[in-house]
Design goal:
The complex is a heterodimer of chains A (114) and B (113). By secondary structure, chain A is mainly β. Helices cover 0% and strands 58% of the residues of chain A. In chain A, strands 2, 4, 5, 9, 10 and 11 form a six-stranded mixed sheet that branches. Chain A has a five-stranded antiparallel sheet with strand order 1-3-8-7-6, with no helix packed on it. Chain A is globular. Chain B is 0% helix and 44% strand. In chain B, strand 5 and strand 6 form a beta hairpin. Chain B starts with a strand and ends with a strand. At the A-B interface, strand 4 and strand 5 of A face strand 5, strand 9 and strand 10 of B.
């Protein structure tokens, strides 16, 4: 069964600190992995996308890593800001269909305190 | 910011009412999707479309129906709303070229009393 598991479920950090979110997946055959940010009451917004051959991708203070052998990914947030408070969702796409089916994790709820 | 819009943003309605959730995108994307998301849970695909006159059911069984008469418009309809339909509904679209990113609308939060 194709699954995407994220940890921790929730995280509270102080403004200015760094944090790392984890994603493990069993989706096969693997196509790509995305990290989305979802603010409360809004739709998800794409942060990064990585294919099988990429092991790191940055977008400003966000850096995603991918280990396709162990089927693990992480999202590292540097120098957190209050606006980083959101749910971060790991999404994995398979190559098994023309739709490019997406498998969503439940997200990590990040809260940044001043 | 993606050019994909959903209305209404919030809807409170009584059991048995017919409702239509609107979704429009101005990016000319062929593929469009409807997801259902409960608090703290993952998104579940309930409908998708490859283009005009194409509609397919997703992974999660849903009593809703969709139509795709125009490229930019993908409305979702519930003929008779029930409390079990209470959820957040997210619309998305993508270019359909293979490694495409899905762009999401802001969502509609539905509460059925």
């Amino acid at each position: 069964k194709n699954q995407v598991e994220q940890s921790p479920q929730s995280l509270i950090i102080l403004e200015g600190k760094n944090c790392t979110l984890q994603c493990n997946y069993t989706v096969s055959p693997f196509s790509n992995l995305r990290w989305y940010k979802q603010d409360t009451g809004r739709g998800p917004v794409s942060l990064t996308i990585m294919t099988f051959s990429e092991n790191t991708k940055s977008n400003g203070r966000y850096t995603a890593t991918l280990d396709a052998d162990t089927k693990q990914s992480s999202l590292h947030i540097t120098a957190s800001q209050l606006s980083d408070s959101a749910s971060y969702i790991c999404v994995v796409s398979d190559r098994g269909s023309t739709l490019g089916r997406l498998y969503f994790g439940r997200g990590t709820q990040l809260t940044v305190w001043p | 910011e993606a050019d994909i819009y959903q209305t209404p943003r919030y809807l409170v309605i009584g059991t048995g009412k017919k409702i239509t959730l609107e979704c429009s995108q101005t990016m000319g994307h062929d593929k469009m999707y409807w997801y259902q998301q409960d608090p703290g849970m993952e998104l579940h695909l309930i409908h998708y479309s490859y283009g005009v006159n194409s509609t397919e059911k997703g992974d999660l069984s849903s009593e809703s129906t969709v139509s795709r008469i125009r490229t930019e418009h993908f409305p979702l309809t519930l003929e008779s709303a029930r409390p079990s339909h209470t959820s957040q509904y997210l619309c998305a679209s993508s270019t359909g070229t293979g490694q495409e990113t899905q762009y999401f609308g802001p969502g509609t939060r539905l509460l059925v009393l």
